[in-house]
Amino acid sequence: MLTILAKLLKVLNSEQSPGQIAAAISLSAIVGLTPLMSLHNLLIVFLVLFFRVNLTIFLVAWPLFTILGMAISPLSESVGESILHAPALLTTWESFYNTVIGRWSNFYYSGVIGSLVIAIVVAILGYPLSRILVVKYRDTWMKKLEKLRIVKLLSATKIWQLYQGQ
Amino acid sequence: MKIIRWWGVLAFAVLLLLITLVWYFLAPRVIASSIEQSGSEVLGARVEIASVDLALFPLSVSIKGLQAADPEEPMTNIFESEEVKFAIDSSALLWKKVVIDELTLTGLKTGTQRETSGALPGGRKSSQAIDKVVELVVPDVANFDVKKMVEDADLITLKRIAAFKESKEQIETQWDKDLDKEAFDKRIEKIKAEYKRLADRAKDNKLNLLKDKKEWKALKRDIDVERERISSLSGKLKSDKSSLSKQYQSIKQGPKDDLNAILKNVGLDSGVESLVDKYIGPQYTPYVMQALDMIKSFEPSSAGAEEKEKAVVQMGQKVYFKDEINFPEFLVKKVTMGGSNEGWNIDGKGFDLGYLPWLTGKPAKLNLSFGGKGSANFNVESHWPSANKMKTTIDSKVAKWPLESMELMQTTDGNWIIDSGELSAELTGNITLESINLSAKFAIASPKLSFPETLGGWQKSLAQSINGQSKINFELTATGTINEPKIRLKSSIENLFKQAVGEQLKKKAEGLKGKVNEALSEKIGDFSSLQNFGSQFKEWQSKLKANDDVLEQLKGKIKI
User: Fold this and answer.
1) Domain boundary among B87, B106, B125
2) How many domains does chain B divide into?
3) Which residue from A141, B384, B398, B544 has the fewest beta carbons nearer than 10 Å?
4) Best mutation site among B20, B90, B314, B329 for testing chain A: the one with the most A CBs within 10 Å?
5) Domain assignment of residue B82, yes or no
6) How many CA within 13 A on the CB side of residue B149?
7) What are the respective helix, strand and coil percentages of chain B, to the nearest 5?
8) A interface mutation test: which of B22, B313, B315, B322 has the most A CBs within 10 A?
9) B13 to chain A: nearest residue by CA?
10) Confidence of residue A33 (pLDDT cuts 50, 70, 90)
11) Is residue B471 in some structural domain?
């Protein structure tokens, strides 16, 4: 736990751009909130690796979003059902279902499409929000945080030294 | 700042490769495990696979050493196959559908011995349907505690007597009200007084007859009203009497009904006939119920547009859209099977076996032929034109198949096995989602039965008489609907059963009947006094008549 916290603080305090960190949070929301074994997650993983998205933040945020995804699973399913049964979208879904990608996308499962829609909303809103928060943290909160006893204790540990040394 | 991480592409490629390798090495295990698990669940006994080989180009699977244990005899395999081989159509796989052009089963054997038990610990995960063992013990009539049987019985006669008494009481109270003498007398007195006044006036002066014409008419109307009232009470009296009379008749029938109800608990309500249903019938019908349950499991839950899938947590409900790829998610276009065992061989073919079946667009067919010692053909054709329409036709025949060891019955004393004989059978009929119409006829010529040595009495007689028969027949018919099938079993064993238990049991049953009757009479008591309710009605009737006579006389005297 301390290791994770140390990693997190290191990234937040590092020279990594707020955009890279915010992108990691946004993309991890999609992977975490939706069922892992979905075709779209392969694309997300590719994006994470291809673009300079912060991997540490991505790997830390992913399990947190997974827990959240399990908690909101009933909501995802009901959102998905409404989307799949919407008369206006029926033709679109039908055409998509009859494509190879549509077949492997699993979008015809209420849980998949519902959670994906929620995840995309979270990702879109989450990107600017987390970007602002990272900037705000670096400008004002970081100094206050460094004065906290727990952080001082943490910075005296071997793990912290190890990360500082890297 | 560079936004692209080129080594990320390489990392992604490595990740994909790793996923593919893991899948490739794990797939055979996954296939074997899913066949073993689902097969065991369906069969109710262990289904095991020795190995699964997966080839990628072309995509094909070879399952070696498939064996399925007999749920009834766990140390024996119901069937065994050396190899099951099939190639999967890659183009269909692209559409997430498994289409097998030809599935071949070779080296099929049945009844092979197993090294370990094939019983499922704890039975199926889903409910284990039927307890097949029948306790073939006809009630020992002599040992019944008749007094207790009658004591514990909730007698209908007593209930009917109570209801009769309550009705009688209600009727009496009502009639006391309706025939209130004081009120009636008052009304009659009033009429009489009015008559006297008008008659006196007429006596004084004849012209008063004309003057009082209106009052005479009013008097006549009053008399008519009173007489109508009496007439309607007479009608009510008759209906009350008839109602009580019916109730009394049902009380008289009560002891018989009670006797039947008590005897029904021991299977003697219809004599030996009902014993046949109780002790022989259930032995065979469970198989039919199992088969029907299997068909029921195919029934679509709704119009076929949606289906719940419990696949993975979070995946949710699967919604089916119109599928333009015209084949089902799982389809075996052709199945061939072959094999032989000592003295027999099997040759089978199947076509268009698919799930969901209505998506195949063609009828599924399965033809199995057994040859060697005898001959047997099993032909099943199932056509699902749509999710809500199905017709399955069965036409199977077995001709002179020599039996070596066929279980006839499982009883608590042990199994009844036909050691030798010749089986002929015919199973024909059809099943739709609305109705069933199946007929199965079995005949075993020259049956030689071995039975538990501990048998005695009528059971031994029955077993011995089976051995003495040149042929035993069973005829099973299933009609009605899948949800409420009506199954009827006729068998020559029934007659043997009746003979074995019949005469002896009939005598004992008659004795028992007498004893139960005595105990019933004692508990119910004498209810003959209840029939005297008629005298009360006579009294009421005569009262009504007397009143009516008075009014009639008065009316007769009025000349206007």
Assistant:
1) B106
2) 2
3) A141
4) B314
5) yes
6) 22
7) 45, 30, 25
8) B315
9) A46
10) very high
11) yes
Q: Note whether residue B444 is domain-resident.
A: yes
Q: What is the mean pLDDT of residues B171-196?
A: 83
- Separation of alpha carbons B512 and B410, rounded Å: 30
CA atoms within 13 A on the CB side of A159: 14
Q: Across-strand partners of B349?
A: B336, B367
pLDDT tops 80 at residue A42: yes
- Token representation of residue B64: 């070696």
Predicted ipTM > 0.85: no
pLDDT value at residue B319: 86
Among residues B436, B462, B481, which one ends one of the domains?
Answer: B481
Alpha-carbon gap, residue B109 to B359, rounded angstroms: 32
Identity of the residue in A49, A80, A111 whose CB atom sits nearest the CB atom of B5: A49
Which positions in chain B touch A89 (Cβ < 8 Å)? none
Give the length of chain B.
Answer: 560
Of A17, A80, A108, nearest to B321 by CB-CB distance is A108
* B313 neighbourhood in chain A, CB within 8 Å: 35, 70, 73
Cβ contact (<8 Å) for B314 and A111?
yes
Q: CA nearest A81 in B: which residue?
A: B317
How big is chain A by its Cα radius of gyration, in Å?
19
Which range of A86-90, A142-146, B493-497 scores highest in mean pLDDT? It is: A86-90
For residue B306, pLDDT beyond 50: no
Task: Give the mean pLDDT of B525-529.
Answer: 84
On whether any CB of chain A is under 8 Å from the CB of B303, the answer is: no
- Nearest residue to B84 via CA among B99, B51, B62, B68: B62
Q: How far apart are CA A37 and CA B312, in angstroms?
A: 10
pLDDT tens, residue by residue, B44-67: 889 999 999 988 888 889 999 999
Tell me which of A148-157, B249-258, B522-531 is least confident: A148-157
Count of Cβ atoms closer than 10 Å to residue A8 Cβ: 14
In chain B, positions 43-82, which contact chain A (CB-CB < 8 Å)?
Answer: none
Q: What tens digit of pLDDT does each residue of B163-179 get?
A: 998 988 888 888 888 77
**Ranges of each domain in chain A:** 17-165
User: What's the helix, strand, coil split of chain A in %, to 5?
Assistant: 85, 0, 15
B326 at A interface, C-beta within 8 A: no
Retrieve residue B35's tokens.
């066949």
B506: pLDDT strictly greater than 60: yes
Residues in chain A whose Cβ is within 8 Å of chain B:
17, 34-35, 37, 45-46, 48-52, 69-70, 73, 76-77, 80-81, 84-85, 90, 93-94, 97-98, 100, 103-104, 106, 108-112, 114-115
Q: Does B557 fall in a domain?
A: no
Task: Grade residue B128 by pLDDT with cuts at 50, 70 and 90.
Answer: very low
Q: Which two structure tokens, joined as six digits, stand for B89?
A: 């159509």
Inter-chain Cβ pairs, chain A and chain B, closer than 8 A: 92
Band of pLDDT at residue B465, cut at 50, 70 and 90: confident
Question: What local confidence, expressed as pLDDT, does residue B312 receive?
Answer: 40
* B123 contact A CB<8A: no
The domain containing residue B385 runs over which residues?
A: 300-481
Q: Is the pLDDT of residue B538 over 60?
A: yes
- The answer to whether the Cβ–Cβ distance between B12 and A93 falls below 8 Å is no
Residues of B in Cβ contact (< 8 Å) with A52: 1-5
